[in-house]
Protein 1
Amino acid sequence: MRRKPLNTASRSKLSKYAKPLASLAILLADAGSRLERRFWKKKLFAALAPMLEGRSDTTLMQTLDHLYNTNYRAYDELAFAIENTVESPELGQEEDILLLAAPVLAWSTYNIPSGKIEEATVAEFTALLQKNVLSDHAHLVLTNMLFSPDQLPESYTAAAELARQLGQAAIDRVKVRIDTENLPATQSFLSDVRYLIGAISVPAGQPAFKWQVEAHSNGTLLSKEEVLVNWRLTGGQALQKIMPGCLLELMLPNGLYNACREAEKEARAYSVRASAAFLESALDVPTQKIHASVGAFVDRGEIEEYRIGFSVEGNSDIVHGVVWPLIGEEYGNEPDPVYEKDIESEPDNPVIRSKIEALLKEVGIRQIKVLEERFPLEYCEDCGSPLYPNPEGELLHAELPEDSELPNSMHLH
Ligand SMILES: [Zn+2]
């Protein structure tokens, strides 16, 4: 599984702490049998646990970055091992722990709420997740907070600390209250993701989720889709109460990293749909008259994201834009399906590109221009907002015309 590489100097010499970690990941990636894999995996997990308890983010990042450029399979093994170790800290022999996230996609022309959740509502969400998503063996402790992406733990060690704190609370059957006063402010977007975060403890080796254990009368297991339908129905009503004025789409609760990645992927299409609906109402222009310009944005020779600039027929000003970041295994350039990968050619990612085009058509936009040139990742120098391409391939700031009906409480960045 491909993840986004990091931005540190990639070919710097490995520190004395990073070297043994990189070697273990390479040995694991080269293992020739399950027996050997298990052996190296155990050693790797044992090496990671104390690093995550210390302040070793720099070492972890340096090792990942080095492997990304030198041994991709080992990089993948290490990234997975770190995420698993973060989410499931070892807190004794009897209980297994998982740091859990329940993502919700939201869009609103007003502010999308985040922050503190009342006691009674925390209890309601806990009961609903327990009933609809988790196995009867699992005990869930949720935090009293609706997290925005800016408020999620920003490093592996911070996430590991949260997992230990919540995991211990789940074992001890006590509540966890987060001090919501000092959290980073949430940037305001037209559409965004919010997360309920908690931890579950299950007796070692027992199933954690409904889809692992709950069967229909004919003996087949409940699918993840069925679990999601039930969660959307019940959790959706409860979330709507604390997120008034928002259109919501609940995603499947799961381990933190998996849930976040899936939510980030879904959020992109969600945001294109939200934008089309928003432009239609704010500008009073039918979607047939909206023009979408799609450009690939490149950093260090690899595609980082696509940006979609929206303009109105007959005018090349950008009225709104959407960033479509590449996530996980999508990151970078796709090898040419017909020819061998040609490193001299322009970076491209045809699968994602056609996915964006299909989605724009689906929401009723007919005038779509996919730009040939590759763009640098440019932002507005004043407000940091991304610049979007117009049909002529110029990078512009998104600005709604002055007579549009934009609610005061929102800005477009
Ligand atoms: Zn600006």
Note: Residues 380, 382-383, 385, 397 surround zinc ion (CB under 6 Å).
Protein 2
Amino acid sequence: MVAEEWRHADRCAAVVEVLGGEPVVALPSLPAVPEHEDADPLEAVLRNVISVSCLSETVAVALIDAERRSAGPPALQRLLAEILADEVGHARFGWRLLEELAPSLSPTLRERLGDYLVIALDELATHELSHLPARASPSAAAEAIGVCDGHAARRLFFATVQEVIVPGLQASGLPALSAWRAAQATGTWAGAMRGGRPLARAS
Ligand SMILES: [Fe+2]
Ligand SMILES: [Fe+2]
């Protein structure tokens, strides 16, 4: 999966180059995967797999598929289809593991994972909305090659959480619905759900 993500970066850099840009950016700092010292090894792994596969990668599948559908040039559509296939694999990894382990999770562990989900869903919304500016595609030219409409992308993000992620986690016995409600109650981003003002946070 790591190799696939590196390949995505490489292919996206090639697109920037073809479009006349210079595909050079500073590498952002990559924080270490959390070790969750307050949790036993099973809970720690589940927290990370839920956060990465069931949350982030599942959102990536929805957003990249929307971009693939609206991409103009066929070469871009093909590239996005390739990336999409990898992201589906990254998301399925987590959903399958969770489905397999779900019957053996104790009520205490389910409850603890529910507490974790409040934080993870808040983080997910904060992160995604900071990358999805609440504005239309920047220009007609950008729109023609498939640069997404930020408003539509935000709606798709919330629909993915509410119609795919939360029900999927609930089906594995995790209290995801109450966690999502709690995250909305505390998250500074919740106004964005009702089409409210853009986040103060830079996007
Ligand atoms: Fe990726
Ligand atoms: Fe991925």
Note: The chain has one domain: 2-18+39-194.
